[in-house]
Amino acid sequence: MFPRSFDYLAPGSMDDALSMLAEHGEDAKVLAGGQSLIPLMKLRFAAPDYIIDINRIPDLGSMHENGSLSVGALVRTHDIERSELIKGRYPATAAAAPLISDPLVRNLGTVVGSLCHADPQGDWASVMLAMNAEIVCRTGESQRRIPVAEFVQGPFTTSLEPNEIATEVNIPDPGADTYGTYMKLERKVGDFASVGVAIHLSFDGPRVERAGIGLTAVGPANIKATEAEQLLTGAELDGGTIARAADLCAKAADPHSDLRGSADYKRAMVRVFVSRALSAATAGKAA
Amino acid sequence: MENKTISVTVNGGSKTSEVEPRRLLVHWIREALGLTGTHVGCDTSSCGACTVLLDGTPVKSCTMFAVQADGREVTTVEGLQQGGKLHPVQEGFKEEHGLQCGFCTPGMMLLGAALLEENPDPSEEDVRWAISGNLCRRTGYQNIVKSVQWAARKAASEQSGVNA
């Protein structure tokens, strides 16, 4: 399958990339890992006139922690999978990485690219919703930070402007006492999620100080389960609270029946995953 | 739409050619360079028959443009042997019957070679994890796993100077 013809631009700096984007705007697409964009172009769901390949821009591939964790636009899912920093401090992020697509796709596919692609079956947006992460977007003149909950607007739709490049995703400090996981039901390696649930909890003693929950593949976009988050905030994780939170998440889900399962089944799996994750978190507290 | 001139180190030798930007890496490798060991299977990033190593890292060459490889190093299955001597992974596939129809084999062997670079003594689980993005519709994977582990033993014995 051949994409439509396009002009290829490979800027060596972010300033050059931004001025190219300022010139071509809606006729251009930014290429990072390409693991979502290139398949779309081959199917001609996307047919940009210009491709702006940011892979030759230095420094976009780094992660650094300074009050919050900055994940650059060229950090691959594989880099996350390998990172000791992520493993130690960001367990939900660490748990999601090896469940995304397959090892070869993870070698190229980026976290920020996945967020910009905004596939409702994409895993990263749920993790970032749970973490209350923000996307840093730049034009030649300005920079803004958009919470992922506002960035992801619908299926394959974000609030990124045609002249903006998402340069990083920024994850707030999770705190010292945390629990996090990502649970994913997939039919086989490389398939999209039938259902995915990202959970992040920060504890203050026995109480939940902050709760973040993101749901994958059960709505027109990834869902932030805000009612369950509110219920959990300040609460202790006893059986009743866990059951109520799981119910609220199942209610927040808005799945459709398809070849991966019926709507009822998917909703039930949301309940099961949330309940399992919260129970595991309490087991951790007890131990 | 403007063509681009690219220079790529393929299997150790520099290759320069003019490509249309939309040309996929796998088509450039097969058609411009005539290296047909890299296969086109599903053409949808699912099967891994088009696996090549990009700067040593396995990628699916059907999901990358040739222009992206400019200035980089690509290894295809043809680059595994050195000076007429088979790579241990290639020998392993022969010894352990790691292939039947052979369609997935180039990709599987490149994955095996890349895995052994970072993990010289992989467990069965390690090998299965490494090849989990590549499909084989014949072997049931069992002999592929054995082939890669055979290669690990062979490489280890070559290093210590003992026969396998």
Q: Please compute the radius of gyration of chain B using only Cα atoms.
A: 16 Å
Given as residue ranges, the uncertain stretches of chain B (5+ residues, pLDDT < 50) are: none
Residue share in β-strands of chain B: 15-25%
CATH topology of the largest domain in chain B: Ubiquitin-like (UB roll)
Number of helices of chain A: 12
CATH class of the largest domain in chain B, please?
Answer: Alpha Beta
Q: Radius of gyration of chain A from the CA trace?
A: 19 Å
CATH architecture of the largest domain in chain A: 2-Layer Sandwich
Question: In the CATH classification, which architecture of the largest domain in chain B applies?
Answer: Roll
Termini of chain A, distance in Å?
54 Å
Strand ordering within the main sheet of chain A: 4-5-10-6-7
Number of domains of chain A: 3
Principal-axes shape call of chain A: globular
Q: Main sheet of chain B, how many strands, which sense, barrel?
A: 5 strands, mixed
SSE-based structural type of chain B: alpha+beta
Strands of chain B, total number: 5
Strand count, sense and barrel status of the largest sheet of chain A are: 5 strands, antiparallel
Please tell me about this protein's structure.
The complex is a heterodimer of chains A (287) and B (164). With 287 residues, chain A is α+β, with helices and mostly antiparallel strands. Chain A is 36% helix and 25% strand. In chain A, the strands form four sheets. A five-stranded antiparallel beta sheet of chain A has the order 4-5-10-6-7. In chain A, strands 11-12-13-14 form a four-stranded antiparallel beta sheet. In chain A, strands 1-3-2 form a three-stranded parallel beta sheet, with helices on one face. Chain A starts with 6 loop residues before the first strand and ends with a helix. The model of chain A has no long low-confidence stretch (mean pLDDT 96). Chain B is of the alpha+beta class. Chain B has a five-stranded mixed beta sheet, sandwiched between helices. In chain B, helix 2 crosses helix 3 and helix 3 crosses helix 5. Chain B is globular and about 55 Å long. Chain B starts with a strand and ends with a helix. The mean pLDDT of chain B is 96. The chains are: A alpha+beta (287), B alpha+beta (164). Chains A and B meet through helix 2 and helix 6 of A and strand 4 of B.
